[in-house]
Amino acid sequence: MKALVYHGPGQQSWEEKSKPVIKEPTDVIVKINKTTICGTDLHIMKGDVPTVTDGRTLGHEGVGIVDETGNGVLNFKKGDHVLISCITSCGKCEYCRKGMYSHCVNGGWILGNIIDGTQAEYVRIPHADNSLYHIPAGSDEEALVMLSDILPTGFECGVLNGKVEPGSSVAIIGSGPIGLAALLTAQFYSPAQIIMIDMDENRLHFAQEFGATEIININKDDAVKKVMSLTNNTGVDTAIEAVGVPSSFELCESVVAPGGCIANIGVHGRSVDLHLETLWSRNITITTRLVDTVTTPMLFKTVLSNKLNASKLITHRFKLNDILHAYKTFGNAAKEKALKVILEAE
Ligand code: ZN
Ligand code: ZN
Question: How large is the C-alpha radius of gyration of the chain?
Answer without folding.
Answer: 20
